[in-house]
Amino acid sequence: MTGARLTHIVRHPVKSAGYEELERAALTEGRPLASDRIWAVRTAGGKLDGAPEGWVTKLAFVRGAAEGSLQAIRARFDEATGTLALTHPKRPDFTGTLPGDGPALVEWLRPLWPATRPAAIDLVTRQDGGALTDRPEPYVAILNHATLRALGTAMGRDLSIHRWRGNLWLDGLQPWAEFDLIDREIAIGEARLRVERRITRCVATTFDPETGLPAGDTLAALEQGWGHKDFGVYARVTRSGVIATGDPVTVLP
Predict the structure, then answer these.
(1) Helix or strand or coil: residue 87?
(2) CATH 2.60.120.200 fits domain 5-31+135-251
């Protein structure tokens, strides 16, 4: 992995409601990326009564796989004050402080959420302080620019990194080399992570994060080109430390 580097750090403060790029972040052993999916919007169909005690399946929440236009939300989150700012090409800008402005956030999201889906009810966070990610494990999602370029070439289009809702993007690898890292440990900046499994993708990745409109069948392209629907890998932080864009990435022995 000579020359591999970290190019992007991305978090999503509210699940399926906006992405935010960071220049640096502190990773904590046994935890996902800080302030990533710490909030989610509960729906009436989720059979969830109020704030969950621990991890809950994504089916309980407003999510991009159920409504692709959510992919076009962008976020800015101030951890110190709890202030969240959201933008979308079809909505006025939103600014509020969480959790107090949770009801206003839900009202802002409702026009983007289909009337045919169970209604958006309220903003929730886990009572145990964990994240409302797609899996119960405290994973960080790692993705490879070379793999994205290979898929884009196969589809005949440029693909945004934000289709994939990942956390850490690496460049300088061969396409699909991230799969070879499973069961290996890598160093990024001061932190260490153990790569554990592939990420299987859903229909949310078929929507353009600039417009929120359908723009190319990523799932069909993955299946036709490589015989699977996997893109990126999940990793567990094994040593805490600060990471920053530009940091080298090293596979540990």
Answers:
(1) strand
(2) no
